[in-house]
Amino acid sequence: MSLWLVIGVGGFIGAILRFIISGWIQNGVVTFPLGTLGVNFLGSFFVSLVLYLSEYRGFFSEEIRIFLTIGVLGSFTTMSTFSFESFKLLEQGEIGALSLNVAGTLILTFLAVYLGKIAIVNMGWE
């Protein structure tokens, strides 16, 4: 199957998942972009799992790895939305919320990558 099609199908799935999960997380929170923060955390964790499983165990074929990382998770994580929402917080003078959003996103996504690696290492799959 063409890699473009693999990525496109994955992107469709990831975008739908992002819409559903981000909305579920955001439910009831009006001003802080908690849904975006949540999907960035989850996406980073799953990217870490897939890439470390691929690196350490050769667990996924190249086509499946591309489908999952570039397709599904590439459209699931929302750094462009993160940047826009952070800029809007800056425009609105919400410096505390901006700082929390930027620091929270960076810290949690780094933590998610670390947890993904630790999960693979602890399973003895490295």
What would you say this structure looks like, in words?
The chain has 126 residues and is mostly helical. It has one domain (3-25, 33-122). The chain has helices at 3-26, 34-57, 62-76, 79-91, 95-122. Helix 1 (3-26) packs across helix 2. The chain is globular, with a radius of gyration of 16 Å. The model has no long low-confidence stretch (mean pLDDT 93).
Main attributes of the structure:
126 residues; mainly alpha; 83% helix
The DSSP helix count reads: 5
Percentage of residues in helical conformation: over 70%
Distance between the termini: 29 Å
Q: Flag low-confidence runs.
A: none
How would you characterize the largest beta sheet?
none
Quick synopsis:
By secondary structure, this protein is an all-alpha fold. Helix content is 83%, strand content 0%.
